[in-house]
Amino acid sequence: MTHNEDQAAGAAAAAPAPAADIGRIVQIAFGGMAAQTLRAALRLRVVELIGDKEKDAADVAALASAQPQPMTRLLRAMTALGLLEERAPGTFAVTSTGALLDPGRPGALTSFVRMFTEPMMLRSWERLDDSVRTGDIAFDKIHGTDFFGHLKDNPELSAAFNGAMGEAVRQTASVLPHAVDFSRFSTVMDIGGGDGTLLSGVLGAHPALTGVVYDTEEGLAQAPGTLRRNGLADRCSLVAGDFFRSVPEGADLHLMKSIVHDWPDERVVTILRNCRAALPSGGRVLIVEPVLPEVVDPETAGLTYLSDLNMLVNVGGRERTRAEFEDLCHRAGLTVTSVTPLAGARPFHAVEAAVDE
């Protein structure tokens, strides 16, 4: 290398990285801070206190028993995140996005935010590198029990989790009933169906169907209220049990949303085998999960790969490709017959599998 070439190489090495690249790294690094801003806003009831009209930061602080200057700083951070709008210096109003942090509004995501900013879950992420090295579930090592066992021992936390899952499933509950032909079936059993939000959406759109929500006792705790509110108590029953031991008979469609990704392969095969044993000839299993492409597409990936890591550190499950779903179903005596993207509920797909005869 000549002297001039050496100088040019040194200059290139010293050149700053593109601003967009630097900004992207900083944005990712600040992600945890943004999440804690949401958590603080919920705990202080900021969105509820502002309500439908604009309000001065000092008034919000007084209502929240907080200090005016720090409250102004919080409200401005929320504005930068698109949750509020500062219409005049120190005067704020709630945006349509921020309104989702008001538990009294339809479609709110307050339980979801509380659960996914819960220190219990976030502590596992602090050991992500350990889980990557060993494959072990960080949550189990930290808490001395598995995630669902911990929920069982903490009823208040379990109720929050049920609420979070109910909020998370609402969008899918509005899309799925129109994306799959449910007219082929008479009874749908939502396995691990929690508070019944998803099955309520299906039954509401298909009046000829009856339903069953099958989950643990603690998983079903909020389901009676959901069914009553939707006028479905007479068309849907609740059955408590353990899908690793057995699945009740009586349904010709078994529906599972965000269940398979909670578990490692062998346990998933056990669940699916129990479904197959309970289904009649011609029965189907409908798995609603993200379906990963064979190669990551950054344009469409969304948060699915972060969800995959969350499964790793907190419960030991994983997100999967179509080929991996097909393999699990084959091992359980099922054959995947279709994989349907749920437009309007990305990244979820409906993976339908038939009982092998």
UniProtKB/TrEMBL annotation:
The active site is at 261 (proton acceptor). Residues 27-99 form the O-methyltransferase dimerisation domain. InterPro entries: COMT-like (IPR016461), COMT_C (IPR001077), COMT_dimerisation (IPR012967), SAM-dependent_MTases_sf (IPR029063), WH-like_DNA-bd_sf (IPR036388), WH_DNA-bd_sf (IPR036390). PROSITE patterns: SAM_OMT_II. The keyword Methyltransferase applies. GO terms for biological process: methylation. Residues 125-334 form the O-methyltransferase C-terminal domain. CDD domains: AdoMet_MTases (cd02440). One of its GO terms (molecular function) is protein dimerization activity. SUPFAM superfamilies: S-adenosyl-L-methionine-dependent methyltransferases, Winged helix' DNA-binding domain. Keywords: Methyltransferase, S-adenosyl-L-methionine, Transferase. Gene3D superfamilies: 1.10.287.1350, Vaccinia Virus protein VP39, Winged helix-like DNA-binding domain superfamily/Winged helix DNA-binding domain. The keyword Transport does not apply. This is Methyltransferase. It comes from Streptomyces silvensis. The lineage of its organism: Bacteria, Bacillati, Actinomycetota, Actinomycetes, Kitasatosporales.
